[in-house]
Amino acid sequence: MSTTEREKSAAKRNDEPFDEDGAPRGKGGEQASADDGGLGAIPTFDVTLRVRRYNSEDGDDESPAEAHWQEFTVTVHGTDRVLDALHKIKWEQDGSLTFRRSCAHGVCGSDAMRINGVNRLACKVLVKDVNPDKPITVEPIKGLPVEKDLVVDMDPFFQSYREVMPFLITSGHQPTRERLQSQEDRERFDDTTKCILCAACTSSCPVFWTDGQYFGPAAIVNAHRFIFDSRDEGADVRLEVLNDREGVWRCRTTFNCTEACPRGIQVTKAIHEVKRALLTRSV
Amino acid sequence: MAAPALEVPRSTPYRRSASRRSNYEMYSWLFMRASGVVLVVLVLGHLFVNLVVGDGITGLDFGFVAGKWASPFWQVWDLAMLWLAMIHGSNGVRTIINDYAERDTTRIVLKTLVALALVFTVVLGTLVIFTFEPCPVGADGALLPAAASFCPA
């Protein structure tokens, strides 16, 4: 069986939560199947990660701390993600390596980082998919101040998010039953409800890199989610916020945000819909 | 503690100026789209008439330009092209300066230079289009010696 076929069958088998003998899948099970080299074995290989390290405590008043690259070589399985490789480094080689992660399954949006130059969630990228033949570069997302290693200060990001008022604004009495909405009305903002606020889009935007005052794609996406919600009555206020000098008109339509979004949100399209709503003054 | 050595975005800590409730950026964005479409027609038409129609590029000389500017149609065409291209281009450079010039003073200086260049070129070009006289005459009413060959003797 060729390597690719073996990988395919390994990937297929991995969809099933249990091995054929009924044992739950786990590190031990994988190792065993890799050892016997039989049908469906998960290949293991060595991979080098170039991680951008920064620790403000390294420096002193005369020589401030500087970021540097550090290489780690780890053995990973074909089914391992970049986050697993980072875990291996942190748990087995260098406990001082610092990064954020919470759910580790692409839902919480904690571990957005720049992997081989593109913003990705480390928990959604398989090591085998980012060319493990060469060292894989892992950096913090750009445009936000680095606190340590891969951890950045997200405050500017969330400040923009707060300014678009990402909550339901209504007037009058609260209805006694739920606020109904047709499927068509819901469909209009369905795409932008998927945002997990990982900042992969905002920190991939060249306008945001050079001017941190720009609201950024994520804030506009979350404004879009309420502007086009038929139950919400705050669209005019949000549109006025985004009509700002630092608002939607700074978008250069480079599609970096759409490319970076781990949830597949059509970010640039959402920004354009907000622009059109501003131009026509109608939602 | 010294500042972090990694690149941080401009003007941190975070501080966004209060909304000015102006539609300036919206109209600027809209103008770029509209003038872009018009400019495609104007510039391609200009190139086609000057370089393809008739004798093509070999027929292009002082007399050809003088003949065009004798017609109000081409005066308006060239005027529209001049104004739209200059404002469109300057506005584009303004957005690039806004994006990439980091210090406030650098931005102001660069944008002032762009505005001066815009005003100078537009005023000069407009003057030329409307005051163009292909056959210069001297104080005595006679043609100057260097006048073009098509001028009345």
TrEMBL record, chain A:
Cofactor(s) it depends on: [4Fe-4S] cluster; [2Fe-2S] cluster; [3Fe-4S] cluster
Region spans: Disordered: 1-41
Lineage: superkingdom: Bacteria
Pfam family, one: Fer2_3
Catalysed conversion reaction: a menaquinone + succinate = a menaquinol + fumarate
Single GO term (MF): succinate dehydrogenase (quinone) activity
CDD domains reported in the protein's UniProt record: fer2
Biased composition regions of type Basic and acidic residues, renumbered to the chain: 1-28
E.C. number(s) listed in UniProt: 1.3.5.1
Keyword Plastid listed: no
Stretches of the chain forming a coiled coil according to its record: none
Residue ranges annotated for the 4Fe-4S ferredoxin-type domain, each copy included: 185-207
InterPro entries named among the record's database cross-references: 2Fe-2S_ferredoxin-like_sf, 2Fe-2S_ferredoxin-type, 4Fe4S_Fe-S-bd, 4Fe4S_Fe_S_CS, Beta-grasp_dom_sf, Helical_ferredxn, SDH/FRD_Iron-Sulfur, Succ_DH/fum_Rdtase_Fe-S
Keywords: 2Fe-2S, 3Fe-4S, 4Fe-4S, Iron, Iron-sulfur, Metal-binding, Oxidoreductase, Tricarboxylic acid cycle
Gene3D superfamilies, alphabetized: 3.10.20.30, Alpha-helical ferredoxin
Annotated PROSITE patterns: 2FE2S_FER_2 (PS51085), 4FE4S_FER_1 (PS00198), 4FE4S_FER_2 (PS51379)
Associated pathway: Carbohydrate metabolism; tricarboxylic acid cycle
Cofactor: binding comment: Binds 1 [4Fe-4S] cluster. Binds 1 [2Fe-2S] cluster.
Family as reported in the entry's similarity comment: Belongs to the succinate dehydrogenase/fumarate reductase iron-sulfur protein family.
Database matches in NCBIfam families: dhsB, PRK05950.1
Protein name (record): Fumarate reductase iron-sulfur subunit
Organism in which the protein naturally occurs: Pseudokineococcus basanitobsidens
TrEMBL record, chain B:
Cofactor(s) annotated in UniProt: heme
Metabolic or biological pathway: Carbohydrate metabolism; tricarboxylic acid cycle
Chain ranges passing through the membrane: 30-49, 69-87, 108-132
Membrane topology per record: Multi-pass membrane protein
Keywords: Cell inner membrane, Cell membrane, Electron transport, Heme, Iron, Membrane, Metal-binding, Transmembrane, Transmembrane helix, Transport, Tricarboxylic acid cycle
InterPro entries tied to this protein: SQR/QFR_C/D (IPR034804), Succ_DH_anchor (IPR014312), SuccDH_FuR_B_TM-su (IPR000701)
Primary location recorded for the protein, binned into one broad class: membrane
Subcellular localization(s) per the UniProt record: Cell inner membrane
Transport in keyword set: yes
Gene3D superfamilies in the cross-refs: Fumarate reductase/succinate dehydrogenase, transmembrane subunit
PANTHER family named in the record: SUCCINATE DEHYDROGENASE HYDROPHOBIC MEMBRANE ANCHOR SUBUNIT
Function per UniProt: Membrane-anchoring subunit of succinate dehydrogenase (SDH).
Protein name, entry field: Succinate dehydrogenase hydrophobic membrane anchor subunit
Organism: Pseudokineococcus basanitobsidens
